[in-house]
Backbone:
C-alpha cells in the first residue's frame, strides 16, 4: 500500500533539490502540494499536454519518453523516489516535451507552477540547485546522443543493464530492482525489440546475465563493462 506523508517527514526531502529550502518554505511547500497516486501502466501526461506544475516522486518508478515515428517510444529516462520532472516545460511555459507513464504504483507530489516560481525567487540556493539538475540532464542527453551515434546496440544494451543495476540496486536474489519488458529495453537504447531479445539470449549463453521472466541478474559485471567500453 502507498502511504502519504508530509514534506517534513519525507525521508527524500534532504536528498533532492528541496533540501535547499528553509523550514518555513518546507511548510509552505507542504501546504500547496497536491498528492497523486498513479497506478501501474497509467499515463500522467502526454507530449503536447499543458502541465500546471512540476512533479516530485515519493515512491515508485515512472518512464519519461518521447514518441517518434508510428508512435514508437524513445525512453529518455526512468525516474524514481526523490527525482523531479516537468520543470523544463513549466519554466519555459511550453507544452510538455515528453510523456510520463507509471512502471509501478507511484506516489507523486505536484507543486503548482506559481508556487515553484515563488520559491525560486525567494531562495537563490534552491534556484541554483534547479539549474544544476537541468545541467546534469543536458549532460545525460549529450552522452545519450554520442552513444547512439558511436556505440553498437550490443554496447548500449550492456551499458543500460549496468546503469539500471547502479541506479535501482538489486533485490535479495541479486535481480535488478526494475522490471522492464523487452520492448521497453529496446525503446531506451533505440533499437528493435527483436535485437534486444537476441542479445539478451547471447549474454545469457555467455554467462554474463541470468534471466527470470522480466527480471535480470548480472553475473559478470566486468565483462559487461568491457563490452560497453566502461573501463
Residues:
Amino acid at each position: 500500500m502507498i502511504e502519504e506523508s508530509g514534506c517534513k517527514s519525507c525521508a527524500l526531502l534532504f536528498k533532492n533539490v528541496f533540501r535547499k529550502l528553509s523550514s518555513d518554505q518546507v511548510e509552505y511547500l507542504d501546504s500547496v502540494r497536491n498528492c497523486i497516486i498513479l497506478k501501474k501502466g497509467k499515463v500522467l501526461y502526454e507530449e503536447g499536454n499543458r502541465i500546471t506544475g512540476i512533479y516530485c516522486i515519493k515512491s515508485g518508478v515512472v518512464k519519461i519518453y518521447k514518441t517518434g515515428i508510428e508512435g514508437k517510444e524513445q525512453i529518455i529516462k526512468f525516474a524514481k523516489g526523490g527525482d523531479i520532472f516537468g520543470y523544463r516545460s513549466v519554466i519555459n511555459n511550453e507544452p510538455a516535451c515528453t510523456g510520463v507513464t507509471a512502471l509501478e504504483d507511484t506516489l507523486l507530489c505536484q507543486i503548482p507552477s506559481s508556487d515553484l516560481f515563488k520559491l525560486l525567487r525567494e531562495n537563490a540556493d534552491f534556484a541554483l540547485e534547479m539549474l544544476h539538475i537541468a545541467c546534469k540532464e543536458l549532460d545525460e542527453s549529450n552522452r545519450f546522443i554520442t552513444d547512439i551515434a558511436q556505440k553498437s546496440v550490443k554496447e548500449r544494451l550492456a551499458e543500460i543493464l549496468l546503469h539500471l543495476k547502479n541506479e535501482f540496486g538489486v533485490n535479495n536474489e541479486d535481480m535488478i530492482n526494475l522490471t522492464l519488458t523487452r520492448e521497453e529495453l529496446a525503446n531506451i537504447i533505440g533499437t528493435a525489440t527483436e535485437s534486444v531479445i537476441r542479445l539478451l539470449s547471447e549474454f545469457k549463453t555467455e554467462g554474463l546475465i541470468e534471466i527470470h521472466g522480466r527480471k535480470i541478474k548480472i553475473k559478470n559485471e566486468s565483462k559487461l563493462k568491457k563490452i560497453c567500453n566502461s573501463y
Remarks:
- The chain has two domains: 13-137, 149-227.
- Residues 13-137 form a domain with the Jelly Rolls fold (CATH 2.60.120.10).
- The chain is about 40% helix and 20% strand.
- The beta strands are 34-38, 43-45, 53-59, 61-67, 73-80, 84-85, 99-102, 106-112, 209-212, 215-218.
